[in-house]
TrEMBL record:
Pfam families: AFOR_C, AFOR_N
GO molecular function, one term: metal ion binding
UniProtKB keywords: 4Fe-4S, Iron, Iron-sulfur, Metal-binding, Oxidoreductase
Residue stretches making up the Aldehyde ferredoxin oxidoreductase N-terminal domain: 7-213
Family statement drawn from the similarity comment of this UniProt entry: Belongs to the AOR/FOR family.
SMART domains from the UniProt entry: AFOR_N
Metal-binding in keyword set: yes
Protein name: Protein containing Aldehyde ferredoxin oxidoreductase
Cofactor requirement: [4Fe-4S] cluster; tungstopterin
Protein's UniProt keywords contain Iron-sulfur: yes
PANTHER family attached to this UniProt entry: ALDEHYDE FERREDOXIN OXIDOREDUCTASE (PTHR30038)
Length: 609
């Protein structure tokens, strides 16, 4: 059945090398099969890889960067501000994506574009300016070395308007730090998989978008009624006010209580001074305002200001849980003002807080254990909780100075330089692990190991469910919950909406089939949408296997198998290798892949068009 609305049916393709700009038509079949967001991106990246016989340098001009909102981005429904950034990751050498909230994706849609793809390399540092139906590549060498926030201000002044949204990189992206991020709307980041390094490799400092077009919606009245019901449900939830007050910072308390909070480079999972960096501490001493992504009533962004002490005047949006945990407890930092300073510095320099905190934690432990010598770290000592040394190392990573040059290349290159670091650094396939310890729940471990981008929680955050309900789960049930999360959560990325209303406040998934129907005019079901999302997971797996990934790579960090949790409710726990391998075989069977994790030809044939 035709999709009658919901899309502009336009693909903007930009070649930075020769300056060619094309507006291409999207077919109904493409829209129906791939929906939007990471679905569009995965297909376009797959097609580009096939053109290059799957031999591609992620930092070369032939690598394709895709930026795609979804059909629900920018319309009236809860948390519809998401936009996906998709490419081949320079950190992992395989499929990579990251999503950003705020309103950049909304503005992109309002310019009449469903998907933007960028190839090549500009002759000099430039920005891409999309102004409704007009697109320009504008050289701006004066932006070199500017922070993400400075870049926004200069572009506003240069283009003579604030009526736009900007996605920019900092010096981390310019210097091709392999975990550089893309910063939008002050501190809404596409943080993972090194998308910022890809922009840097293309000499693309920023993308500025101004759009005034009405979004295509098939049934506005039906959509408004459905959205009102969803907003009403959220507003009456018992934790709604807590989310408005603390946002994701409330997870610090939860993670510490349940023994999954990364502490001292994941050596432990309980931080005895967690109350100095939790949501209550933020509310009592630092929070000065709220912020929210487009159409979101949860307002989970916290505007914080340091009012006294050595970091006086530091203001930032954040931190959220991941940043606070990885730059706080994981590094032994118990000063919330120092966490804010580190978070702000990462945002300004344009590097991912999760990877940064993970790698610095490994450096501290590596030095403590004698794996790294004092000479290895530039004769500058570093220890748990050493705020000055941590901030200095953040700068060194972004500028690739001294030991920062090696650290900027991520876990795989660090291990190449110092093989013993493999025993203490936490990554899967080269992507540093998110801030949830998995030794407490094997389903979470399976989710990390089989994630199509590496050890990131957004694909399958099953840890809470398993700790609270999973004591008697069968192996099949553990596999099923991982696959369900890996299907539903990426569907949100395809639709262009945030997962938090569902995962945190329990908004029923059925709302999204109704949202999609009212926006596009296409009769569908949640089950059908989930099938499309499952297809995309197969597609990203195909991309990865063509880049060399197989069963040997679907594994866990050494610590998860060999280093028991030290204290707290999960003391003594590790993941049993044999049990994990058994679950992995069940997982492959349930997905229809072979014993080595390779999808068969009949799955690949779905994407031959």
């Amino acid at each position: 059945m035709n999709i009658r609305s919901g899309y502009f049916r336009k693909h903007l393709h930009v070649n930075l090398t020769d300056g060619e700009i094309e507006r291409l038509d999207l077919s109904e079949t493409f829209l129906e099969k791939y929906i939007g967001g990471r679905g569009f991106g995965a297909k376009l990246v797959w097609d580009n890889l096939r053109m290059h016989d799957f031999k591609i340098d992620p930092l070369g001009p032939e690598n394709l960067l895709v930026i795609a909102p979804g059909p629900l981005t920018g319309v009236y429904l809860p948390s519809s501000g998401k936009c996906s950034f998709i490419s081949i990751s320079p950190a992992t050498g395989m499929y990579g994506d990251s999503s950003a909230g705020g309103a950049f994706g909304v503005e992109l849609r309002q310019s009449g574009i469903d998907v933007l793809s960028i190839k090549g390399r500009a002759p000099e540092l430039s920005i891409l300016f999309i102004d409704n139906d007009s697109t320009e590549i504008i050289p701006m060498p004066e932006l070199k070395g500017k922070s993400c926030l400075e870049t926004e201000g200069i572009i506003f002044e240069k283009l003579g308007t604030y009526a736009m949204h900007i996605a920019a990189i900092g010096v981390g992206g310019e210097n091709q730090v392999l975990f550089a991020c893309v910063n939008t709307d002050w501190s809404r980041n596409a943080g993972r998989t090194g998308i910022g390094a890809i922009m840097g490799s293309k000499n693309l400092k920023a993308i500025a978008v101004r759009g005034h077009k009405d979004l295509p919606v098939y049934d506005v009245n039906g959509l408004v009624a459905e959205a009102d019901r969803a907003y009403e449900y959220l507003s009456k939830h018992k934790y709604f006010e807590l989310w408005q007050q603390q946002g994701l910072m409330n997870v610090i308390e939860y993670a510490n209580e349940h023994g999954i909070l990364p502490t001292y480079n994941f050596r432990d999972t309980v931080f005895v001074r967690h109350d100095r960096i939790n949501g209550e501490e933020m509310l009592d001493r630092y929070k000065i305002g709220d912020s929210a992504c487009f159409a979101c009533s949860m307002t989970c962004g916290n505007i914080c200001l340091v009012k006294n002490g050595k970091y006086t005047g530091t203001v930032t949006e954040g931190p959220e849980y991941e940043s606070c945990a990885m730059l706080g407890s994981n590094l032994g930092v118990d000063n919330f003002a120092a966490v804010l300073a580190a978070n702000r510095l990462c945002d300004e320099l344009g590097i991912d807080t999760i990877s940064t905190g993970n790698i610095i934690g490994a450096v501290i432990e590596g030095y403590e254990q004698g794996i790294l010598s004092l000479a290895d770290i530039d004769n500058e000592e570093i220890a748990w909780g050493d705020e000055d040394a941590i901030l200095n190392l953040i700068r060194k990573i972004a500028f690739r100075e001294g030991v920062g040059d090696i650290l900027s290349q991520g876990s795989l290159r660090i291990i190449e330089r110092w093989p013993e670091m493999e025993k203490i650094i936490l990554h899967v396939k080269g992507l540093e692990q998110s801030a949830y310890d998995s030794r407490a729940g094997i389903s979470m471990a399976l989710g990390y190991a089989t994630s199509d981008i590496g050890a990131h929680h957004t694909r399958a955050w099953t840890i809470a469910k398993e700790m609270e309900e999973g004591q008697n789960w069968t192996d099949e049930e553990k596999v099923e919950i991982v696959i369900y999360h890996q299907t539903l959560r990426p569907l949100f990325d395809m639709l262009g909406v945030c997962r938090l209303p569902w995962i945190e406040l329990g908004l029923n998934e059925r709302h999204y089939e109704n949202f999609y129907r009212y926006v596009t005019g296409r009769e569908t079901s949640l089950e059908e949408l989930l099938e499309r999302s499952k297809d995309i997971y197969d597609l990203t797996r195909l991309i990865n296997t063509r880049m060399g990934v197989n069963r040997k790579d679907d594994t866990l960090p050494y610590k998860v198998y060999a280093r028991p949790v030290l204290t707290g409710p999960n003391a003594g726990k590790v993941i049993d290798k044999d049990e994990f391998q058994k679950l992995l075989s069940l997982y492959y069977k349930r997905r229809g892949w072979d014993e080595n994790g390779i999808p068969p030809r009949e799955i690949e044939a779905k994407f031959d068009d």
